[in-house]
Give the backbone structure.
Amino acid sequence: KQSEALRDLQDLGRESEALCRQWLAGLDFLRTRSRAEHESLWNLFSKLLETDPDNAGAVLGRALSAWKLGRRKDAEDGFNRAITLDQGFAALALAARARLAFEMGKTSEGEADFANSGKMPQADSRLYLLRGMASAAERNYTSAQHDFETASQSSEAAGEGFRLLALLQAAWSTSPADEHARQAIHDAQHACMLTEERDWTCLEALAAA
């Protein structure tokens, strides 16, 4: 029975990690999701934490859901706990906390968290996605473009990087035939190819381009 319980915990851990990373990759300053979807994710991660309260992936996943539900205090507390627990999630939690800080007008704190997240051993390209989104929200589109381009060169965030680049280029376009419009179509097509045309957000970006 103990071995079965251990296997169940390991399965929950893998599930929460996959959900968290998928959720994080989907954070997007232009995308909208229903409140019901956010509530569902909150409930799912809460259920995982009942079984494994120190699962950093589930802690971070629930904090991200809290953030999108407008529960900033719960989100901040969750990010802090995920950073403390670490388990490979500290860098992502720092980047998410940084994005929240920007949203709350705490620019210097956000910049410090982004800088620290990039120095951690387990840092990955999703940090560039989050920093790019923060820059875009601050209307610093050149910095956002640079971060999205960096993310698009990675293995784990290339599709999302090209998708966001496509949306950025489409927003800059003033004519269907200008350079930005052509680049938007190119980036969106690349995003669709990388996701094997299974990600509706990439297909949506192509339609927008």
